[in-house]
Design brief:
The structure holds two protein chains of two kinds. Chain A is mainly β. Helix content of chain A is 0%, strand content 55%. In chain A, the strands form two sheets. In chain A, strands 2, 4, 5, 9, 10 and 11 form a six-stranded mixed sheet that branches. In chain B, 0% of the residues lie in helices and 50% in strands. Classes of the chains: A mainly beta, B mainly beta. At the A-B interface, strand 5, strand 9 and strand 10 of A face strand 4, strand 5 and strand 10 of B.
Amino acid sequence: ELKVEQNPLFLSMQEGKNYTIYCNYSTTSDRLYWYRQDPGKSLESLFVLLSNGAVKQEGRLMASLDTKARLSTLHITAAVHDLSATYFCAVDKRGGADGLTFGKGTHLIIQP
Amino acid sequence: EPEVTQTPSHQVTQMGQEVILRCVPISNHLYFYWYRQILGQKVEFLVSFYNNEISEKSEIFDDQFSVERPDGSNFTLKIRSTKLEDSAMYFCASSPGLAVRNEQFFGPGTRLTVL
């Protein structure tokens, strides 16, 4: 059974600070996805990481993937209040168009 | 920009009743999915659908659940006899079905409340 673990599950930080969210998964996979969810809303695709060493950046967010370590990170640089949300990582098991297995999510609060 | 749509946004039903949740995937996408999210918990995969048949389903997707693509645009999830524990947000998603990139696009969700 594929397991996806995120940590921390809850993070409160101040604007201007940097932090990293970690996502570990239990099986071989070359594809990892990061989603953002605002309260009561749907999931918004942030990053698609398709190979070992992949790094993607969008604004203050940067995601990376190490398939050998089965680890992805989401790094937040100089956080701003608008980034407050829950962030999920997700993995698909076999390739193709499988259902995604999600982590429990990291609830991020950025205080002014 | 094309998006996945879902109706209704909120459905309230009595335990034991049947409900049908509706989704319109992005028009040129080939794979369709249902997920659920119990309040405050993680998103859980239910079922994937391709070429008019189920391609994968999870342990959650038991005989009480069924999916259908009744026409060229709608994708439905039916729960035959709802239970209290079926209360959750149900998300539909679709993907282009490219072998190298399974990016799934999610709809706004239907909040199902079973009383």
